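Hi V.,

You were right to ask for the full record rather than a summary. Here it is.
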Amino acid sequence: MNNELIYLDYNATTPVDACVLEAMLPYFTRYYGNAASKTHPAGWQAEAAVDKARQQVADLISATTDEIIFTSGSTESCNLAIKGTFEKYRAKGNHIITISTEHKAVLDVCASLEKKGGRVTYLSVTPEGLIDLDELKNSISDKTFLVCVMLANNETGAIQPLKEISKIAHEYNAIVFCDATQAAGKTPIDVNETGIDLLCLSAHKFYGPKGAGALFVRRKNPRVSLQALIEGGGHEKGLRSGTLNVPGIVGMGKACEMAKEEIWENNTKISALRARLEHQLLDLPMVRINGSTKYRLYNTANICFSGINSAALIPKINSKICVSSGSACTSALAQPSHVLKAMGLSDEDSYSSIRFSLGKYTTEQEIDETIALFKKIISAI
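Predicted structure:
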């Protein structure tokens, strides 16, 4: 990346930490064995590396190693969690509850299951982007087999009350699936304390490599069963066949270990930088923060510049500053953010909103340069 670029799109992806890369490199060349090769040392070395990484991932979310299934990332994990439970729990019912601000990796899967006989309830959110627990209580029934709620929204950073959601779901023996892609590494996660039954995370969101992810599958109280989507060899307890990406998994494990160690240090530093950014930009006319300012990730600021279309604003800054007008997976689409629309924003204000997401390499100088550039451009519009 050009060193002169100011990167404020950490919710889209993060650079691989140097320590993560160092941990990965030997597994491309020196320790290149297949972790499924059980008859020789090369395979044993690879298997040991995967076992270590599985422990590191489990430690990040307070799970056990036998509850971690490695995947290619959160999109695959979402598909396995939702489609896998749909096939396994048909006898209980066909009802899924999710929220209107979920990532497309959840919403699109739910839509595809509706074509196969699934019934999906899409809960609304408050203007702050938070779930209404009473609406959940009124929507759930004995036919509900799955409740899908992300821990932290990728566009606004809004954090949902998963512990309360899980309590309601479990009263009806429904499984709770949590997309923790944005939250992992930024906020402490304890799957037992929150009652989450399935949870996905992706390494590239917290300074690990792209193409490495994991799905937590609860083994007891309750034991969750899934139907495999990828078959052919029985890898990962038969839930995800295919040769394991050992370097990527090693990198993910190291990234999890570092995230757990650095979480509070990053929180303190990055939240201060975000506050600096917001305080200065909110001095501009017709500028406001979208979503909750209390229950959100410390690194995310979704800001509406009323009356200024982001499609006109971003080209004026993108040679210097990397920001987003929405999710990285949907920002190329010529339509307003479904997240902001669900929160009650008009099309015009949705198009006028920009997501700033900071990371551990963000500096005070970069924030000051960003503030100065935005003020200069907006004053000239």
